[in-house]
Amino acid sequence: MTARTQLLDREVGKALSALSAAAKKGLGDAVLAELVMIRASQLNHCAFCLDMHLALARENRVDEERLGLLAAWEEAEDLYDGRERAALALTEAMTVLTGGFVSDEVYEGAAEHFADGELAHLIGLITAINGWNRLMVSRRVAPGDYTP
User: Fold this and answer.
1) pLDDT tens digit string along 79-100?
2) Residues in CB range of 88: below 8 A, 6 or more apart
3) Of 3, 96, 98, 130, which alpha carbon lies 20 to 30 A from 39's?
4) Phi and psi of 108, rounded to 5°?
5) If you average pLDDT over residues 91-117, what whole number do you get?
6) What angle do CA 138, 143, 145 make, to 5 degrees?
7) What is the mean pLDDT of the chain?
Protein backbone atom coordinates (compact mmCIF):
# COMPACT_ATOMS: atom_id res chain seq x y z
CA MET A 1 0.00 0.00 0.00
CA THR A 2 1.10 3.52 -0.67
CA ALA A 3 0.85 6.18 2.01
CA ARG A 4 -2.22 7.54 0.22
CA THR A 5 -4.13 4.25 0.24
CA GLN A 6 -3.05 3.10 3.68
CA LEU A 7 -6.10 4.03 5.69
CA LEU A 8 -4.68 4.83 9.11
CA ASP A 9 -2.79 3.46 12.02
CA ARG A 10 -4.50 0.42 13.53
CA GLU A 11 -4.73 1.98 17.00
CA VAL A 12 -6.23 5.19 15.60
CA GLY A 13 -8.76 3.13 13.65
CA LYS A 14 -9.70 1.13 16.73
CA ALA A 15 -10.15 4.30 18.77
CA LEU A 16 -12.28 6.03 16.14
CA SER A 17 -14.34 2.85 15.66
CA ALA A 18 -14.91 2.64 19.42
CA LEU A 19 -16.07 6.27 19.52
CA SER A 20 -18.44 5.66 16.60
CA ALA A 21 -19.89 2.50 18.14
CA ALA A 22 -20.33 4.02 21.61
CA ALA A 23 -21.97 7.15 20.25
CA LYS A 24 -24.32 5.19 17.98
CA LYS A 25 -25.26 2.77 20.76
CA GLY A 26 -25.83 5.59 23.26
CA LEU A 27 -28.01 7.47 20.80
CA GLY A 28 -30.17 4.37 20.51
CA ASP A 29 -31.71 5.22 17.14
CA ALA A 30 -30.05 3.51 14.18
CA VAL A 31 -32.10 5.37 11.56
CA LEU A 32 -31.32 8.78 13.04
CA ALA A 33 -27.65 7.82 13.31
CA GLU A 34 -27.51 6.91 9.62
CA LEU A 35 -29.28 10.13 8.57
CA VAL A 36 -26.74 12.15 10.58
CA MET A 37 -23.78 10.25 9.14
CA ILE A 38 -25.08 10.56 5.59
CA ARG A 39 -25.67 14.30 5.94
CA ALA A 40 -22.18 14.94 7.34
CA SER A 41 -20.69 12.81 4.58
CA GLN A 42 -22.61 14.80 1.96
CA LEU A 43 -21.24 18.06 3.36
CA ASN A 44 -17.70 16.65 3.47
CA HIS A 45 -17.95 15.08 0.00
CA CYS A 46 -16.91 11.68 1.33
CA ALA A 47 -17.99 9.19 -1.33
CA PHE A 48 -16.81 6.13 0.61
CA CYS A 49 -18.78 7.11 3.73
CA LEU A 50 -21.84 8.00 1.66
CA ASP A 51 -21.72 4.61 -0.03
CA MET A 52 -21.37 2.85 3.31
CA HIS A 53 -24.02 4.77 5.24
CA LEU A 54 -26.55 4.74 2.42
CA ALA A 55 -26.22 0.94 2.39
CA LEU A 56 -26.66 0.82 6.17
CA ALA A 57 -29.67 3.15 5.99
CA ARG A 58 -31.27 0.89 3.41
CA GLU A 59 -30.59 -2.10 5.69
CA ASN A 60 -32.50 -0.16 8.36
CA ARG A 61 -35.35 0.31 5.86
CA VAL A 62 -35.01 4.08 5.52
CA ASP A 63 -37.33 5.20 2.75
CA GLU A 64 -35.61 6.09 -0.55
CA GLU A 65 -37.44 9.42 -0.71
CA ARG A 66 -35.97 10.42 2.66
CA LEU A 67 -32.50 9.40 1.50
CA GLY A 68 -32.85 11.19 -1.82
CA LEU A 69 -34.02 14.46 -0.27
CA LEU A 70 -31.70 14.47 2.74
CA ALA A 71 -29.46 17.15 1.20
CA ALA A 72 -32.54 19.41 1.13
CA TRP A 73 -34.05 18.32 4.45
CA GLU A 74 -34.98 21.87 5.45
CA GLU A 75 -37.31 22.16 2.47
CA ALA A 76 -38.67 18.61 2.83
CA GLU A 77 -40.42 19.33 6.12
CA ASP A 78 -42.92 16.47 5.93
CA LEU A 79 -40.23 13.80 5.59
CA TYR A 80 -38.27 14.48 8.79
CA ASP A 81 -39.70 14.86 12.28
CA GLY A 82 -38.65 17.52 14.78
CA ARG A 83 -36.05 15.32 16.44
CA GLU A 84 -34.46 14.44 13.09
CA ARG A 85 -34.53 18.07 11.98
CA ALA A 86 -32.81 19.18 15.20
CA ALA A 87 -30.14 16.49 14.77
CA LEU A 88 -29.57 17.44 11.13
CA ALA A 89 -29.28 21.14 12.03
CA LEU A 90 -26.70 20.27 14.69
CA THR A 91 -24.87 18.03 12.21
CA GLU A 92 -24.60 20.86 9.70
CA ALA A 93 -23.55 23.38 12.35
CA MET A 94 -20.81 21.09 13.72
CA THR A 95 -19.62 20.00 10.28
CA VAL A 96 -19.41 23.39 8.61
CA LEU A 97 -18.74 25.63 11.65
CA THR A 98 -19.56 28.71 9.60
CA GLY A 99 -19.20 31.19 12.44
CA GLY A 100 -16.49 29.20 14.18
CA PHE A 101 -18.98 27.71 16.64
CA VAL A 102 -22.40 26.10 16.94
CA SER A 103 -25.01 28.80 17.47
CA ASP A 104 -27.03 28.88 20.68
CA GLU A 105 -30.20 28.54 18.60
CA VAL A 106 -29.07 25.30 16.97
CA TYR A 107 -27.72 23.85 20.22
CA GLU A 108 -30.86 24.75 22.17
CA GLY A 109 -33.00 23.31 19.38
CA ALA A 110 -31.19 20.00 19.73
CA ALA A 111 -31.37 20.15 23.54
CA GLU A 112 -35.16 20.42 23.28
CA HIS A 113 -35.34 17.05 21.51
CA PHE A 114 -32.56 15.09 23.22
CA ALA A 115 -31.92 14.34 26.88
CA ASP A 116 -28.43 15.28 28.10
CA GLY A 117 -26.98 11.78 27.57
CA GLU A 118 -28.55 11.46 24.13
CA LEU A 119 -27.25 14.87 23.14
CA ALA A 120 -23.76 13.93 24.28
CA HIS A 121 -23.93 10.76 22.15
CA LEU A 122 -25.27 12.71 19.17
CA ILE A 123 -22.39 15.18 19.44
CA GLY A 124 -19.97 12.24 19.74
CA LEU A 125 -21.46 10.63 16.63
CA ILE A 126 -21.18 13.85 14.61
CA THR A 127 -17.60 14.25 15.79
CA ALA A 128 -16.78 10.65 14.82
CA ILE A 129 -18.26 10.80 11.32
CA ASN A 130 -16.48 14.07 10.63
CA GLY A 131 -13.23 12.36 11.65
CA TRP A 132 -13.95 9.39 9.39
CA ASN A 133 -14.90 11.68 6.51
CA ARG A 134 -11.66 13.60 6.78
CA LEU A 135 -9.60 10.40 6.93
CA MET A 136 -11.31 8.86 3.92
CA VAL A 137 -11.26 12.04 1.83
CA SER A 138 -7.61 12.79 2.60
CA ARG A 139 -6.64 9.21 1.72
CA ARG A 140 -8.91 9.26 -1.35
CA VAL A 141 -10.63 6.02 -0.37
CA ALA A 142 -13.01 5.24 -3.23
CA PRO A 143 -16.61 4.10 -2.79
CA GLY A 144 -17.69 0.62 -3.71
CA ASP A 145 -15.53 -1.41 -1.34
CA TYR A 146 -18.03 -1.42 1.55
CA THR A 147 -20.27 -4.44 1.90
CA PRO A 148 -22.74 -4.65 4.78
Assistant:
1) 999 999 999 999 999 999 988 8
2) 35, 36, 39, 70, 73, 80
3) 3
4) -65, -35
5) 95
6) 115
7) 92
